[in-house]
Amino acid sequence: MSKNQAIIFLTLLAVIIIAWAYLFYQHWQMTTLPMSDMWMPPSDASVWHWIDFGLVYMMWAVMMAGMMLPSAMSMILVYAKICEQRYQTSHPYTFLFVFAYLSVWLIFSVVLTLLQWQMHGLQFLSPMMDVQYKWMAVIIFLLAGIYQFTPQKNSFLQSCRTPLGFLLTEWREGTLGAFRMGIKHGSACLGCCWAQMMIMFAVGVMNLLGMVLITALVFVEKIIPHHYQFFSKAMGILFIVWGFWLI
């Protein structure tokens, strides 16, 4: 690993650590502070203020960065290595690639925020952001499980599993190219993992163990060789069984 790649790796590692530290802090607040001392999303959707949307969005945005950056690390480092060979530097291109990649998940966090707003209004989630409606959790687990077997899931997953293949087929020159490639890769990862992220609604939005397990599942799913399909299918079966078990 070159000096430039090491700097990029350590920078991304610092972002991941900060994101998880924030999530641990949020979890600590919710499990230790008295309810009178903590902020909680309003149960009535009509009384949400901008600060409520902002805090929920920040939670989801940090969560998406902390959960998805580890699995994108191999793609980012391969891209940085190619940039170093082509441009004799990798920093501006790689950080723009990462910014574009994260932008996809930051936009998805807006969707998750709006979904949570409606789920609180429908009483599907408690003020502590735990699931109150069993059938919502069942539907989410079954949806995530079924999606694991679809051609769309497999197609997006192959793009995430083969960094060199993605870069060879999707390469674009310059800074604009770096941004477009980051958006493309982020979109592929979103197509691959959106249903797994939705599981956070089913297990409790601030369920720290749920975050860790889903992050680990996504990471392993992306690093195993592409000709091994058993892990993704096993995940699908696990989600489906979990859904039926909740019934």
UniProtKB/TrEMBL annotation:
This is Predicted metal-binding membrane protein. Keywords: Membrane, Transmembrane, Transmembrane helix. InterPro entries: PpoB2-like (IPR018688). The chain crosses the membrane at residues 7-27, 47-80, 92-112, 132-149, 199-220, 226-246. It holds the Pfam family PpoB2. It comes from the Bacteria.
